[in-house]
Amino acid sequence: MAQEIQNAIQDPIIRVRDITVQFGATRVLDGLNLDVKRGEILGFVGPSGAGKSVLTRTIIGLVPKVAGSIEVFGVDLDASNTAQRRNVERRWGVLFQQGALFSSLTVRQNIQFPMREYLRVSQRLMDEITMAKLAMVGLKPEVAERFPSELSGGMIKRVALARALSLDPDLVFLDEPTSGLDPIGAGDFDDLVRTLQRTLGLTVFMVTHDLDSLYTACDRIAVLGNGKIIAAGSIADMQASQHPWLRQYFHGKRARAVVT
Amino acid sequence: MSGDPKLERIAKGNALALCATGTWTASFAPVLERIVADAEKLAGSPQSIFIDVSEVAKLDTFGAWLIERLRRSLTQGAVEAQIAGLSANYSSLVDEVRRVRATPVVDSSTITITGMLEQIGRAVAGIAGTVAGLVDMLGAVLAAVARTLIHPRSFRLTSTVHHLEQVCWRAVPIVVLITFLIGCIIAQQGIFHFRRFGADIFVVDMLGVLVLREIGVLLVAIMVAGRSGSAYTAELGSMKMREEIDALRTMGFDPIEVLVLPRMLALVLALPILAFLGAMAALYGGGLVAWLYGGVDPEAFLLRLRDAISIDHFIVGIVKAPVMAAVIGIVACVEGLAVQGSAESLGQHTTASVVKGIFFVIVMDGVFAIFFASIGM
Prior knowledge:
heterodimer; A: alpha/beta; six-stranded mixed sheet; 42% helix; B: four-stranded mixed sheet; 12 helices; 4 strands
């Protein structure tokens, strides 16, 4: 009972309980538990192939799970009906690793796509909001009429973020947002995520490999290993951890370069 | 906890206050847009106006922008509208949208007569480009063949066999089925109409000549253009989109040699085989119908067939097959390598590959018909 009250006060925006995901005979996630609190930026790390993307895709419903429950905004996604689910989906935005922009639409049409489907507003307002979103992610208005094939890697990430934010979601999933960006671009992107998180009051779930992102952008870090969360806490907790993989990750050659 | 958004007008002496209340978020965007459009009509009033947002329960980009838009349209001449009562939580959001320049997006795609003429001109000029592209690819393929003949070790046997399986072996069931049915239909129609003149038996002549000279190879070529030509274009196109072809080139490989040549060779080998099988299936189907529907027993059918056709008919048909295969292959590879970055472009080029492939196959068939007629075959 006391535990339940405690949970209610903390108000996790995502609550994952005993999730098991299996592909054939390989068990990728094995009874995993995770809470994401309202308003935080959670950095999600782990070795390559540990199932970070799988967990993200399981939460957003792209990968079926064998067991366990997922609650987002207090709605159990398995027990919800279509309308409830639609409502949850409207309140989250997803930035895919490769951007996943619609290649046959311009940047403007890409950003307006969710608005067109979900909101009945005038073209003028959609155009203005598009310009606002582009400015927020640090792109010039001229970019609006370009096609995704005419954009650089960093611009694709920014446009994809603008599209993820187009309905002003409460929660965004970022799958390796800084991969493939140069260090300056990656740093800018981290700042951008931080700024947007502050201005829009976002909760951010960020899968990343980038140590800089963990140090500069994230409030809390969760580490995935052997299909479970092996550690969760602040960057200081991570550094103090005695887990062999964590020690290597946070005290290895590259980590020292970041800290100093 | 939060209700529908409202904007109340309260006169305060000389000034007018617009008090925003409720939830100013994306979910209420249609309502908000009407409210703001309504309030914008106040523009030009001499009073000084301030927009009070202290009672707003929730604000996001949509709400913040609409408030900012209202402030801009109410600011005219000496009168400046101001936003008041902004809480610390939302001030950064409002600052953010304040930086936005609302540049109107100009849609330049209006249809004019000159524009239409321009498009026609471009399309006509494009035909020359298409032909040049095909000749270019033909030259590149022949050059690759020559290089392979000089250095036979650079030939990709595994790849060729793989494509041969895809375009030949796996195509056999559908090709045989369709040509069988067409053979049945030709025989049935022939018997139905010839019977009136008592000329039932001539259906065998018609079937033999038609199937071996024309229908067999033409039908199979059209099917292969639809089945394998489109697959080639889609494969090469998606490789082009993912920069795989550029990767090959930087490693010192010639994409023509690595990708196009094995596909072309597989197709050139496959089409004669498929055309032969197709012709046999059509004759079998025709014979079956002639027996069951027309009463021509198999023995009589075979005897008649032997008299009606010569090896020339078969040669005329089968000689066309490799040439048609080459045409289909070249069209498919040119279209595949012309794919640009988008999924839409991939679709357009795959469609173009099939349409052009079938068109050129029929044109080639006509050319061959003239040729064989003039040499008396």
